[in-house]
């Protein structure tokens, strides 16, 4: 039997990462090739699983996914499944995902999602230290989206603005507009304000990771797809910044890989 045919018959392993904005799914039969799917969190909660007498049940056919043999969950929604499915911390999920995607065993891992930021120090293939900022959405994807919406800039345009940033000191996702209004009244170009917003997120993240003694920075999470923030990290910090091929699915990949480590 060919390897392709064998993989079709092999049991499906699926990782679920419940983010604040999207639910990310990664699934595989061989831990070499992964399929991915992203669903708006509200739509996922509303349409793709339901409560039953036995707990919660996923609607796999509606997701166009074969029923998996094993599922591992992380993220904001993992508490819903802790008595039904294996769950792992987001720290472990992102560590496994980033190690797999980069092949590195000594690096700083920065994950900026919709509502929080995590910084991990990986040494000798283990998590030596970590910091999280999960009490406030300051400097996260939600903040960036709010500021782009306030400036009425298309997302693609906003995430290309990294040059000549104006200084932004308030990275609050709710009250950051006040400082932007002040810059607009002073006649600062819109592109410089957007660049300032992106740069402020990068600088906030660099403050989190400065305690870690390493020059390689692996950047994952939804904000890692923001080209301007990546450029600001490279310009403002003395790091080799690496964005893996699938930064937004890193946690879901890590959930899949947890089952691979179980089988060793």
TrEMBL record:
Cofactor(s) required for function per UniProt: [4Fe-4S] cluster
NCBIfam families assigned: CoA_E_activ
Entry keyword set: Iron, Iron-sulfur, Metal-binding
Annotated ranges, domain ATPase BadF/BadG/BcrA/BcrD type: 71-257
Gene3D superfamilies with a match to the protein in the record: 3.30.420.40
Protein origin, superkingdom: Bacteria
Ranges that cross the membrane: none
Source organism phylogeny: Bacteria, Pseudomonadati, Thermodesulfobacteriota, Desulfobaccia, Desulfobaccales
Protein name: CoA-substrate-specific enzyme activase
Single Gene Ontology MF annotation: metal ion binding
InterPro entries: ATPase_BadF (IPR002731), ATPase_NBD (IPR043129), CoA_E_activase_dom (IPR008275), Dehydratase_Activator_Redct (IPR051805)
Cross-referenced Pfam families: BcrAD_BadFG (PF01869)
Organism: Desulfobacca acetoxidans (strain ATCC 700848 / DSM 11109 / ASRB2)
């Amino acid at each position: 039997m060919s390897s392709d045919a064998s993989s079709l018959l092999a049991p499906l392993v699926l990782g679920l990462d419940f983010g604040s904005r999207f639910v990310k799914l990664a699934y595989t039969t061989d831990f070499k090739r992964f399929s991915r799917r992203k669903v708006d969190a509200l739509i996922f909660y509303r349409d793709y699983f339901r409560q039953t007498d036995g707990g919660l049940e996923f609607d796999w056919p509606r997701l166009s996914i074969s029923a998996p043999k094993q599922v591992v969950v992380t993220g904001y929604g993992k508490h819903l499944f802790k008595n039904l499915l294996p769950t792992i911390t987001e720290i472990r999920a992102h560590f496994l995902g980033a190690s797999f995607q980069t092949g590195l065993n000594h690096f700083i891992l920065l994950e900026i999602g919709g509502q929080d930021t995590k910084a991990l120090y990986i040494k000798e293939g283990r998590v030596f230290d970590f910091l999280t900022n999960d009490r406030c959405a300051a400097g996260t994807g939600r903040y960036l989206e709010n500021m782009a919406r306030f400036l009425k800039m298309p997302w693609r345009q906003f995430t290309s603005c990294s040059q000549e940033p104006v200084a932004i000191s308030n990275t609050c996702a709710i009250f950051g507009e006040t400082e932007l209004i002040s810059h607009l009244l002073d006649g600062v170009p819109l592109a410089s304000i957007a660049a300032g917003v992106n740069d402020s997120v990068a600088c906030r993240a660099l403050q989190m990771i400065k305690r870690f003694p390493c020059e390689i920075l692996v950047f994952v999470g939804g904000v890692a797809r923001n080209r301007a923030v990546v450029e600001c990290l490279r310009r403002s910090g003395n790091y080799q910044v690496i964005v893996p091929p699938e930064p937004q699915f890193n946690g879901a990949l890590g959930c899949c890989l947890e089952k691979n480590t179980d089988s060793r």
